Amino acid sequence: MRKEETMRRQSRGAVRRIALRVGLVVMLTIVSVLAFIKFEYGRGTLYPDVGSENPEGASKLEKLIKLDYPPGNVAVAPNGHVYFNYHPIARAGRFSAATMFEWVDGKITPFPSVEAQKDFQGSFGMTIDRQNRVWLIEPASFDFQHTRLWAFDLNTRQRVEYFEFPGNEAQFAQDLRVTADGKYVILADTGIMRFTEPKLIVYSVQDHSFRTALAGNPCTSPEDWLMQTPFGVYRMGAGLVNVAVGLDGIEISPDQKWVYLAAMTNSHLCRVPLAVVLDASKTSFEVAKKVEVLGPKPLSDGITVDKAGHVILTDVEHGSLMSFDPETKGIKTLVRSHDVIWADGVATGPDGSLYFTDSALSAYIGQLAGPPDKDRLLAHQPYFIYRHKP
User: Fold this and answer.
1) Could you give the CA distance from residue 371 to residue 33 in angstroms, rounded to a whole number?
2) How far apart, in whole angstroms, are the C-alpha atoms of residue 136 and residue 181?
3) Pick from 108, 103, 101: nearest CA to 86
4) pLDDT, block means (10 residues), the chain with 390 residues
5) Closest among 338, 340, 349 to 390, alpha carbons compared
6) Cβ neighbours of 137 (radius 10 Å)
């Protein structure tokens, strides 16, 4: 009996030692994985401020539209009507009957109708083409289904285009522009942090086909910058991962010669010939050869072109709009407001006024990008769409 008891004690001791060793190995593995994530995805340096204060510009800034929930993108029609949506990360559809709107002479109405709101899952990018259609993109990354592309005729308010990208295609498409002839939609797919590569995608309205025109290019990829916000450095995943966003903003020049490329956490504005992007015979490698680096820019989100042909970029770190001259390569601050938390979407109006949204993104986004609760959103009310007059 004593011998058996001794053997049992020895066996239990051996099991405990094995369990301790396994636990130690697991703990060391977890620590090593977290250290790797922090080193690989949490590195970076603070980005230098490429702008400045501009009191004269601030005097031209107007809080145009007051909102209960954070706006995302904005587009302005030739007749001056303003179209905007609630930011999909805020998931305001949980608390609001509508998420897509039209503003006319101070009055806000759901667009295209109250009934249509139930069909939207969270529109992101928005643009109005020369055929008087407003286009929306709903990236799959916000609903884990297919990325969806919509177009509505502004006169009839009827849907005139709808396409679901198959599988995981265009999963992170967040911005879009339409060629002057209305035949092609250019899409910016940001990728996810530094885990997947950003892409420039071309969609054909005529035959509903699509292809990747450019991928994995330095001009479309995030760089190792630490993004600053009023709430500190923008990190996620319990502080392990710095927010690093690739190709987020694109614009087509009015003369249809260029596609401007503005990756959010990238230090340079770039461009590539539109004709090359639309040429289906060109590989991504061949398109990449035609990409031109123009000059430094802020860490940006929205992009538009003003009446003078200057590229307008939002500066997400300093609540400002900046103007880049493609000819002189010069950049200057148009307006900077310390009231603006996150200058997001921007659009040019028919009279040359610039409209931009303050999505206040860094005020409520969670560590895992989950939807904020209502109290968190209400704590930062009101939200605004601004107008900067020429």
Assistant:
1) 27
2) 18
3) 101
4) 65 65 53 41 82 91 97 98 96 95 97 96 94 96 82 98 94 96 97 80 97 96 92 68 87 98 97 98 97 98 97 97 97 96 98 97 79 93 96
5) 349
6) 25
